[in-house]
Write a structure and sequence with these properties.
This protein has helices spanning 12-21, 32-37, 49-58, 61-67, 77-81, 178-190; strands at 2-5, 27-29, 40-43, 72-75, 83-86, 91-92, 97-103, 113-118, 133-138, 140-142, 148-153, 157-164, 167-170. It is an alpha/beta fold and 191 residues long. It has a single domain (2-190), classed as Rossmann fold, CATH 3.40.50. The strands form 3 sheets. A 7-stranded mixed sheet has the order 2-1-3-4-13-12-11. Strands 6-5-7-10 form a 4-stranded mixed sheet. Strand 5 and strand 6 (91-92) form a beta hairpin. The protein is globular and about 45 Å long.
Amino acid sequence: MNVIVQYNAGNIQSVHYSLARIGAEATVTDDPALIRSAEKVIFPGVGEASTAMGYLRERGLDTLLKSLTQPVLGICLGMQLMCLHSEENDTEGMGIFGTRVRRFPVGELKVPQIGWNKVEDTKGALFNGATPYCYFVHSYYADICAETDAVTEYGRKFSSALHKGNFYGVQFHPEKSAEAGEDILRNFLKL
């Protein structure tokens, strides 16, 4: 069973529909027992970091997610919350990835970055056979670090994918990235 973590962040239904398009079933839940017993866990998100982290902490989901041993994929805000800290309302993250999340400089760039962009310097199992040109919608980005599995440039280079042990994260939206996104989701489900 695959699980999509339900919390007060958007985009969960888009991920659910995307999985259905590639023939994968998933349960949308915030039930700790179902999350713990899942084969794969997807942690998506569109929203504001401090509110989302507050929801996770109130329900103990932050501790639960950090303790998982099966493959976990954070998408967009989900990936950012897996980092050490976000500049968005000075939010402490889960600390799974050892990097910080920063805001793109307003005035220097059009913020948020919305649209298609190259995902370069790819490594790791998520990108096997995938053409890395993906769809982004974000105002914040993760710094490049030892756990960076892919890089994208938008005014500066940033981590568009992270990987540490059984934890994976992507800044882009695979559920909105057409064939490339479907390939990445299939690769995740094969882990």
